[in-house]
């Protein structure tokens, strides 16, 4: 590494001012959390509101009353705390879904300011996310749609949406047209909370996919969650997956969140509520995993540790065939970077910023099997953190299998 960039990659690179021996540990590009709500961090532990039913829709209603009167400074503190925790596990790239259904846009302004303050250490993309809907929200003469546009003018990076939370399919469809129109107008990326429900009638993913095909905007677009696609029948799903391949639209699945939130109205058998991640992987449709929530009204746990998300996701989606293990880390690294359009800066390549993490395992398989800890996170050639490997008082030899 030189001047914060990778200058050469390989063996026997000659003399250097400083050499660090990682003892055969695994080096990966940094984790990418492609879907997380930093502005909701730890809202789940407060005395004002409690989610009794545990459902997504009660959480949305409660948030609506909670957020009244929140200030930008309060939001900035919360977002900074969230980034600190998320980064402490090795994440350096975050797509922050940020609620803009607030006439003061406190969360959006806060997220944009924190994004700019931290940009040397952490890359954050801010999504203008209308949590309470584009057309089902209206306050002080401003609709959710108006507030999305205002957030984009302030500097948000992506257009968000939530068609399944609008009042009717017509409104949901209308919101999708508007999302794509706004993205093209302001030259922004798209990331829609799409079909986050077990309702098999929720098929906004089809509408979104068609619209971006018409507008040639697939690679810039992400459909997050698409839970109902996991409940859809095969005839529909297989036709749609052919169209997703054509559009090149990206997907994000949030395994812990949706395992917890979906299937709530089922007795048994109880659905997992996840989209068809394994089929996407097999068909070359880009899909990444995200944390989504950390102790908020939607989900009472979480830490931003993407190793935990990966582990849960691999179990829930059965990605454990022999061919899966070598590429599973892509779900929390390269695939997220692709949908965030980080192609020029992301990856272990000569000339790119020297950003990487070190996991406490010798191979990708061992790292997954043992849920290996991230020991170091390096940004532009400098440590964001550097931890000592775990020590044992007794003589345990955890590497015995791979020797
Ligand atoms: Zn979300």
From TrEMBL:
Residues 70-383 form the Amidohydrolase domain. One of its GO terms (molecular function) is metal ion binding. Keywords: Hydrolase, Metal-binding. SUPFAM superfamilies: Composite domain of metallo-dependent hydrolases, Metallo-dependent hydrolases. GO terms for biological process: cytosine catabolic process. It comes from the Bacteria. This is Cytosine deaminase. It comes from Alkalibacterium kapii. The lineage of its organism: Bacteria, Bacillati, Bacillota, Bacilli, Lactobacillales.
């Amino acid at each position: 590494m030189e001047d914060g960039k990778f200058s050469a990659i390989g063996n026997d690179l000659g003399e250097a001012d400083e050499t660090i021996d990682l003892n055969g540990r695994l080096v990966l590009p940094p984790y990418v959390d492609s879907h997380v709500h930093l502005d909701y961090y730890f809202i789940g532990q407060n005395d004002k509101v409690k989610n009794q039913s545990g459902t997504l829709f009660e959480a949305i209603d409660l948030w609506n009353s909670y957020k009244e009167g929140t200030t930008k400074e309060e939001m900035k503190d919360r977002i900074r705390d969230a980034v600190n925790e998320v980064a402490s596990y090795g994440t350096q790239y975050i797509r922050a879904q940020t609620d803009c259904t607030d006439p003061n846009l406190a969360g959006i302004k806060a997220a944009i300011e924190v994004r700019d303050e931290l940009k040397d250490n952490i890359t954050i993309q801010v999504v203008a996310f209308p949590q309470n809907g584009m057309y089902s929200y209206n306050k002080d003469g401003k609709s959710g749609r108006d507030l999305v546009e205002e957030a984009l003018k302030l500097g948000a990076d992506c257009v968000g949406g939530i068609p399944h939370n609008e009042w009717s399919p017509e409104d949901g469809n209308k919101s999708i047209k508007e999302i794509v129109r706004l993205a093209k107008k302001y030259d922004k990326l798209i990331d829609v909370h799409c079909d986050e429900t077990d309702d098999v009638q929720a098929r906004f993913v089809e509408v979104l996919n068609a619209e971006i095909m018409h507008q040639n905007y697939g690679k810039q677009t992400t459909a997050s969650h698409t839970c109902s696609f996991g409940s859809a029948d095969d005839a529909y799903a297989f036709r749609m997956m052919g169209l997703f391949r054509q559009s090149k639209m990206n997907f994000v699945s949030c395994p812990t969140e949706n395992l917890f939130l979906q299937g709530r109205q089922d007795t048994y058998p109880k659905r997992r509520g996840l989209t068809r991640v394994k089929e996407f992987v097999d068909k070359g449709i880009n899909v990444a995993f995200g944390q989504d929530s950390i102790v908020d009204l939607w989900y009472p746990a979480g830490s931003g540790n993407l190793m935990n998300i990966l582990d849960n996701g691999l179990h829930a989606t059965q990605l454990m065939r022999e061919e899966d293990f070598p590429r599973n880390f892509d779900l929390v690294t390269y695939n997220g970077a692709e949908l965030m359009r980080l192609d020029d800066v992301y990856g272990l390549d000569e000339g790119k910023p020297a950003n990487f993490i070190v996991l406490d395992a010798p191979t990708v398989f061992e790292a997954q099997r043992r849920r290996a800890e991230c020991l170091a996170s390096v940004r532009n050639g400098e440590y964001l953190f550097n931890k000592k490997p775990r020590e044992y008082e007794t003589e345990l030899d955890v590497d015995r299998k791979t020797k």
